[in-house]
Each structure stands twice: as structure tokens, then as C-alpha cells.
Amino acid sequence: MSLDLSASPLRFLDWIRHEIDLDTYFNTIMSGEESIKNKPHPHPYLEMIRRLDIKPTNTIIIEDSIVGLRSALGAGAHVVALSGSVPRESLKIAHRIVDHLDEISIKFIEVLLLENL
Known about the structure:
Layout: E1 2-5, H1 10-20, E2 28-31, H2 43-52, E3 60-63, H3 66-74, E4 78-82, E5 96-98, H4 106-115
Parallel strand pairs: 1-2, 3-4, 4-5
């Protein structure tokens, strides 16, 4: 599993990594400072996809901002919008919208990956 806090500075990411031991939970972690271009450009996600050596069509990105959604869609990934910080109407550009992360189950992921090929 990977984590891309692409809009976050490296110092913030390092602080979080230390505070909650993120490296225990994620194999690959990337900051926006490691990307040539930041959101809404798709480069942060394309770089993470490249590092993981996977296809965009085998990727699910969860975002809660319009800029992040555009970046993820531009990368060719399956995109899930998390509601809360943006009006729900604006999130409709994503493949799916969820109100809570616990809505994302294995079945949800399987259906999403198969549905949007």
C-alpha cells in the first residue's frame, strides 16, 4: 500500500511519519516536494504509480478536494471522492463518492476496478 500526501511539504510528512509511525503501514510514501509538478497536474500520482510499477487502471485514489480529484483523474486511476470538505455536487467528477472511509470494502474495490475498465 502506498501513501501520497502530494500537496504536503516534506517536513510535514516527516513529522507525521514519526508521530504515528506511518512506515509501519505504508511501503511507499511520497511528498509533493518530490514531484516535478504538483496538483492539479497528474504528475504526483503518475510518479507514485511509476514507483510502485503498477498500471493506472489497477490504482484507486481517494481524494477530498477538486484539485486532487482532477490530478487523480488525469493520472488515469479509479477515483473515489470523500465528501465533507467540498460540496457533493462538485464531487461528481469522481467514479464514486463516499461519505465515510468505512464504505470502502473489498467488494467496493473489486466492483470499482472491474466497472471502469
